[in-house]
Amino acid sequence: MSDRVAISLVQGHSHGGVALVFDIDDIRILRNLGIAGILAGTLPSATQQNAFLSVPLRLMTEEALWLVEKGAAYFVTGPESVTSAANAVTPQDMLQTRQKLELSFAEQREFKQQEHVEKLRQLGLPSDDGQSPTTKSLLLESSLFIETPNSSALVPNQPQDPARQKLLWKQLRDACKNQGDYHVYKALRQQEYFLSPGARFGGRFIAYPGDPLRYHSHMTVQPALDYSRDSLDLLQVVSGGRLGTGVKKLWVVAGVKPEAEDPSEQVSFFSIEWAAFG
């Protein structure tokens, strides 16, 4: 298993695409890197449920950019990956796949037959329950299933050429609605904060001091402002401070200075909270 995570860029309404991770092992690597993401997978039979979501893991644009820039991930995109994989399939590959499927069916048949006999024994019934062999065979075959893997065994998740990776990175970067948000994200990640989308708390990010499974979020970070040009509305400061106090979080404003040569000086943070509350 490669230490670099494969991020699938699914083209949608956004210009750069939606960043998704399908492999469970890759998701585990991301968690160790401080990337929580949002599970977005659901069941076709219960598409509206949101209590038991699974893969794929959806990443924020800033998360995907940061991972690739850090060298911890690479982009996989385009129909050419599927086309090249399909063209590379040989008759021997198809035979091996069929043999694995038949082996899985044989194991399922043996297990289900043993399970059926054990149930009859517990009920005190003879193993021959009077059903015809044809009926038994039909019932057994109808209970077999095919497991659908989360990641493709045919599509090679190998990094594309560096020029292609740079182009995809730039397209995703240009698709950011607020270019300064990525500087804010990087600054907070350097301080080892876990970050999640912050719309439900009235911000761009929610910042956790550690893994969200262990800690509550401490800050609601607002969309980035240009430190030299953008103004901060006093009414926004008052309403934001009250909102932050209401949800027991610091309301944080970040000013970005793109012209700063030192990366550590590109972002300045200001926290606002109501005094004598809580």
TrEMBL record:
<dbReference type="InterPro" id="IPR059049">
    <property type="entry name" value="TSEN34_N"/>
</dbReference>
<dbReference type="GO" id="GO:0003676">
    <property type="term" value="F:nucleic acid binding"/>
</dbReference>
<feature type="active site">
    <location>
        <position position="208"/>
    </location>
</feature>
<dbReference type="GO" id="GO:0000214">
    <property type="term" value="C:tRNA-intron endonuclease complex"/>
</dbReference>
<protein>
    <recommendedName>
        <fullName>tRNA-splicing endonuclease subunit Sen34</fullName>
        <ecNumber>4.6.1.16</ecNumber>
    </recommendedName>
</protein>
<dbReference type="Pfam" id="PF26577">
    <property type="entry name" value="TSEN34_N"/>
</dbReference>
<dbReference type="GO" id="GO:0000213">
    <property type="term" value="F:tRNA-intron lyase activity"/>
</dbReference>
<dbReference type="InterPro" id="IPR016690">
    <property type="entry name" value="TSEN34"/>
</dbReference>
<dbReference type="InterPro" id="IPR006676">
    <property type="entry name" value="tRNA_splic"/>
</dbReference>
<feature type="active site">
    <location>
        <position position="249"/>
    </location>
</feature>
<keyword id="KW-0819">tRNA processing</keyword>
<dbReference type="Pfam" id="PF01974">
    <property type="entry name" value="tRNA_int_endo"/>
</dbReference>
<dbReference type="InterPro" id="IPR011856">
    <property type="entry name" value="tRNA_endonuc-like_dom_sf"/>
</dbReference>
<keyword id="KW-0456">Lyase</keyword>
<dbReference type="InterPro" id="IPR036167">
    <property type="entry name" value="tRNA_intron_Endo_cat-like_sf"/>
</dbReference>
<comment type="subunit">
    <text>Heterotetramer composed of SEN2, SEN15, SEN34 and SEN54. Interacts directly with SEN15.</text>
</comment>
<comment type="similarity">
    <text>Belongs to the tRNA-intron endonuclease family.</text>
</comment>
<feature type="domain" description="tRNA intron endonuclease catalytic">
    <location>
        <begin position="181"/>
        <end position="259"/>
    </location>
</feature>
<dbReference type="InterPro" id="IPR006677">
    <property type="entry name" value="tRNA_intron_Endonuc_cat-like"/>
</dbReference>
<feature type="active site">
    <location>
        <position position="216"/>
    </location>
</feature>
<dbReference type="GO" id="GO:0000379">
    <property type="term" value="P:tRNA-type intron splice site recognition and cleavage"/>
</dbReference>
<feature type="domain" description="TSEN34 N-terminal">
    <location>
        <begin position="13"/>
        <end position="77"/>
    </location>
</feature>
<comment type="function">
    <text>Constitutes one of the two catalytic subunit of the tRNA-splicing endonuclease complex, a complex responsible for identification and cleavage of the splice sites in pre-tRNA. It cleaves pre-tRNA at the 5'- and 3'-splice sites to release the intron. The products are an intron and two tRNA half-molecules bearing 2',3'-cyclic phosphate and 5'-OH termini. There are no conserved sequences at the splice sites, but the intron is invariably located at the same site in the gene, placing the splice sites an invariant distance from the constant structural features of the tRNA body.</text>
</comment>
